[in-house]
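Can anyone check this?
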Amino acid sequence: MPRVSQLGVTADRHMTGNGQLSATACFTGLERRLLGTSSDWPATCLSLVEGRDLKLLIQPNDGIQPLLAAIKRAKKSIDILIFRMDWKELESALKAASSRGLAVRALIAHTNRGGEPKLRNLETRFLEAGVTVGRTADDLIRYHGKMMIVDRQTLFLLSFNFVHLDIDHSRGFGIITKSAKVVQEAVKLFEADLNRQTYSAGHNALVVSPTNARKQISAFLRGAKKQVLIYDPKIADKQIMRLLEDHAKAGLDVKIIGSTVARSANLHVSPLTSMRLHTRTIIRDGSQAFVGSQSLRQPELDLRREIGIIVRDSTVVKNLVATFEQDWAASGFDEVKTSVAAEPEITAKAVRALAKQMPPLQTTLKKAIKQAVSRAGKQALAHGDLKSTVKGAVKAAVKEAVKEMVQ
């Protein structure tokens, strides 16, 4: 049975800020007027993180190196939450950190689709290297979050797993932040899941399923005024779909790279054609973004452990928008839409022109039958082959007539 560390976080729960800016969208009416803040901000507190030390990882561009470098620079501790891992370099780096005397703790999912033997083997290898190993509980159908905390000062919140498929061949994003409040909340979540205790969000810095994700993401989407850009392999939650439909009907620009459970005449949806899609990301009005592990589906909002974050750092959001626009352009959706919009008029003109040139069908059939009978002659009549002969001749004649008319 994997051993579980009992280290607490009491000493970290009163950490003071270190120059990071963490704005919380939870103001009174008076405060909103004084700050010039939109009066229709949600009543729920959305933690919007920004600051000089907030960075964005883009996969497959950035690769595994930022994670390896962070592990190598670590001085005291590394906490890592693993759903899948096949990067040998990453495993070796964590083992090396443990051998240097760092407190390395790996919280490994109790299950994933088809990979449980690999998870159990990874636990064994880590234990043999002196890494403290914990296994998530089985109270939720999945523990699907991905994050790493270094020295309890830096959080890597990721939408991708520690596997080659996600990092080398898929679109994925990660947020690196040193915001004290965000890191503190991540440590609290890690400790709760490591010790199989109930997690209660004390600060909405993190969007955590099933604790606060539905409430936070719904409020985030409702706050959109002009545009919503979404990466999601499959949107299926009924409430979220209605919200997006309402936005689109109200004139907002709603674009989805991925898919939806049902077709919609209002939403613009296109698959990612340039590479595999794995990230779950929402960009609102070009100024704020959600990056996380939860798709907009009922199980991932309500029944699984998923982790995300909402940020409004201008550089991070700008890069997310640029990446989305690049992927959207590569999909060819706008070109197809323009072509389809012009097609009805072109088709109507072609049909009218064809109708004018089309001879009466009755005449064509009579001609074909007469020719078939003439060619068959008395021998075909005698052997009862006239029916099949005429049928074949008529089919060929009609086909040829249509071909000539179309040309």
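Reply from J.R.: I decoded it. The chain has a mean pLDDT of 82.
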